[in-house]
Amino acid sequence: MSFESLGLSAPVLQAVAEKGYTTPTPIQEKAIPIVLMGRDVLGCAQTGTGKTASFVLPMIDILAEGRAKSRMPRTLILEPTRELAAQVAENFETYGKYNKLNMALLIGGVSFPDQERALERGVDVLIATPGRLLDHFERGGILLNDVKILVIDEADRMLDMGFIPDVERIVATLPTLRQTLFFSATMPPEIKRLADRFLSNPKEVTVSPPASASATIVQGLIVVPEDDKREALLALIKSQDVKNALVFCNRKRDVATLHTALKKHGLNAGALHGDMSQPARTETLEKFKAGDIQILVASDVAARGLDVQDMSHVFNYDVPFSPEDYVHRIGRTGRAGKIGHSFTLAAPFEGGLIEAIEKLIGTTIPRIEVPGLETATLEAGDGRRRGRGGRGGRPGRSSGGAGAGDKPRGPRREPRAPREHREPRPEVSAEPQAAAEAPAAREPRPERAPRERRPEREHAPREHAPREPRAERAAQPPRERNSERRPERSHERRSEPRRDRDDGGPAPKGLGDHVPAFLARQPR
Predict the structure, then answer these.
(1) How far apart are alpha carbons 258 and 404 in whole angstroms?
(2) Reported pTM
(3) Which of 258, 406, 444, 486 has the fewest CB atoms nearer than 10 Å to its CB?
């Protein structure tokens, strides 16, 4: 089947032909006619199968008629990461160059004024990450009540990154009558329930088993001790014919550490992780796609949707914690029917993670030996999700191997034996213990002699001052005698106010005759 038989317009077919594509992929062959009919689509296909073009091409034809209003986009495409959003924008520019469509990209790391000016001109296609879109919406810079088509891309990645609550808020502001296109590489129960809420009588399109590895990828597994991972990676890079390669680490700080180590060994390497600024991330990706960077050390931010022409190798320096992430990582190579190579470095204690991956993809990853390095054996998994660096793995290890920047730990204490295996304590007889606890018998104290009484002292008689006769005391005026103790009655008024002794000012009221001198003074 060709693209002409899918019902696409002549301008879109011309842009596709100039890109060099003649035959649609299975997901494009099934999804494009359904999207052109206006029905909701639930698409599930592995990474690298052309999901982006399956909704970009028919959307260009649908939007060919109509005109966008200021701050009111006609279509909305939600992506989990900035890199995916930027890649979708590149697809619209490539396939829609013969159609006059306005497009805006709302992602973090870009100034708000530039994005606001793009929204004011009117947008036919709005591509955004959930967080930045909500920032513009809460500021009143965008209205979503004119959206006719909603695309939720990489829904399982949205779930992993915790964006589902934001997506639900955004969908609640959209019109009820709309066309919704829902795409995901895997279809766990949570994603299925979410699709049932957002979609109305959808047409399900599944072209391959969920989370299966492409048959064009040659896989390999190297099991070495944790401290030998870096040496094994260098040996693989030198022994393989590497045109360009991605090296995945689980943690962002290990990306920087491994990037520095590869550059010290004379390799043309770059780094990409979520803590980098958006201009730096964009510049690094452009250099990698242009061939200026041969090896890109990255976190899982580059595991979804990154499309680099003829990528030859993918190296998993760390085994991913999620089996689905393994499929997405190695899916960066072996695209468009070309042969790719992927190698995974595993430590012995990561046997549980390897078992989960092999169970998901339905095949055993071939074991490979690196000359000059000791080959280890995977430990049996216990069914639990294991990892390093505080995520359930061995203590004292980091995903960067030796020299990853972790502080050395002190010597470990010997574990205590279980209660049933402890040696019983020696029994102690009760008689010696009772004898030790019994107080010693006290000897009777000798009786003390009675104390002698001291002779009584002779006291001289005290001399008292002569007392005034009662008659003279009675002759004194009663007011003069009791004036210090008798309070002034409330009904008694003085004819003249009392004067202060110092300056003759009026005495403070409320204290009666008992006024301290410092309160009676007037300020000078």
Answers:
(1) 8
(2) 0.59
(3) 444
